[in-house]
């Protein structure tokens, strides 16, 4: 298997193939993992911005590789420069004069990378500075977490060593050796007065503490019962990462940000809702959990929007707003009643598994997830090469199948299957493809959009559009305990489907929530808003949902993966990876659980010489087949990784 680029779908496929015994070569022309799914330090992001603002094309005058092409072969050239990012604009709202000669302080290592040596890189662990303690969580009852545990829901940010286990999952986990997700435990933040003036942050401080930042190119959360969480646990990849549960769901209504009650405990403890509204909300949420059993309640509204359906359910305007924008998180105009009910049910089913909200966030950023699957691939023999571009695909004219790739060194590499990210395909292959765009903004701010006693909050906020037909904007605010920003700052991600440039789409929302003026220009009415210290806007290509037949002239054994999609979760990437894997190997299980090292049985004849320090001579040592050798090597790597 030859994989080009190390985005999330490609990394999952590579891990699944290596786990099933295939030989995998994973190359990427970039010098970092993840592609458009990557995370950067502050200086790394500045370099990425500069690279994407430059319009220079890469010219390849070397034609030596064409000598490797035979008469009965043809080539499909790949793109020399990735063109998935457009309209990059960055702004600084603090004084930069004192930051000219400032350099980043000591490193804050992320997940160890891999070189071309495959599994060898896995052993080179680097300790993370100030690592959070680990706290294992297992599944609890949905919607009523307080009833499942006999106390309030366990939260990673509260600093409690709590293990929540349901009877069914406990027995299954014990029987199968299934891993639990590791939720990072952070110290409880001291109580602070919400009106306390935020500390002054300078640009030189941001640059100096640049390695404290892990800034995602794509902003997503993990549904606690989503496909990615299930895959992480099933494949045991979850042991390579830590997670923090989102602590609150917010809503923007009447020009103010307020917290949304979503679980039963939140609803009955809420001071925003009257007793009548609490009963209305609980009655509707209970209906959504088993709406399929009551088709007469919604079948007359299948052609209506979800917003129109809500208006018939005897819900107050504030409840309709909460359900539409903060629970179902769907469009007011483009989502029908059935889709809205499905989204609401998914939200409710995810409550209570790992915390009081349905969402988890990986510590050190979303870019950790592709690297975790790359590590699994390397453990089972996958070979990784960064800064290694591919010139073309070599196609046999008679069979129409791809036989090999030619890299930038002029080497010809043969394989049976080829996985290519959409951005690597040339314009001649994508003539019939129509791409959408995603508008993104990343802000560094000095305080939260909604101050509370605890400053360590992970919040998600949906800002409804001002004009009908425009998309809603998803806002994710991350605190320093997520290991994505420096202390006393917040990292804010804004995402929506594009209608214009990213700045035109998102700056009106930024102006509603934040103060964009410099400290000297700030007026009295802007003092209550968090101040933006630094911001970047960019548009990212959305290639999700494009059928393979839309690409011209691709061989049947070349599979195309899409880049990030605008959805909040990662289900699209997981579905795509599993579909491609099953098409290649229909008889193989997708990412099966790794074997338990205690169950591995070694042949006494093989381990006896190792114990005595003796080895067979060349004359007496029997030659083993390549399959036997590969099997023993794989077993040894598994044992080494477990240890």
TrEMBL record:
Gene3D superfamilies (UniProt xref): FAD/NAD(P)-binding domain (3.50.50.60), Guanine Nucleotide Dissociation Inhibitor, domain 1 (1.10.405.10), Guanine Nucleotide Dissociation Inhibitor, domain 2 (3.30.519.10)
Domain RAE1/2 span(s) in chain numbering: 438-565
SUPFAM superfamilies: FAD-linked reductases, C-terminal domain, FAD/NAD(P)-binding domain
Signal peptide from the UniProt entry: none
InterPro entries membership: FAD/NAD-bd_sf (IPR036188), GDP_dissociation_inhibitor (IPR018203), Rab_escort (IPR001738), RAE1_2_domI_C (IPR054420)
Coarse class of the protein's main subcellular location: cytoplasm
Localization per Swiss-Prot or TrEMBL: Cytoplasm, Cytosol
Comp. bias (Polar residues): 165-183, 613-622
Region (Disordered): 111-195, 589-643
Regions of compositional bias (Acidic residues) in chain numbering: 600-609
Basic and acidic residues biased stretches: 144-163
Keyword Transferase in record: yes
GO biological process: intracellular protein transport; small GTPase-mediated signal transduction; vesicle-mediated transport
Cellular compartments per GO CC: cytosol; nucleus; Rab-protein geranylgeranyltransferase complex
Pfam families from the UniProt entry: GDI, RAE1_2_domI_C
Alphabetized UniProt keyword annotations: Cytoplasm, GTPase activation, Transferase
GO molecular function: GDP-dissociation inhibitor activity; GTPase activator activity; transferase activity
Keyword match Transferase: yes
Similarity-based family: Belongs to the Rab GDI family.
Name of the molecule in the record: RAE2 geranylgeranyltransferase
Gene name per UniProt: Chml
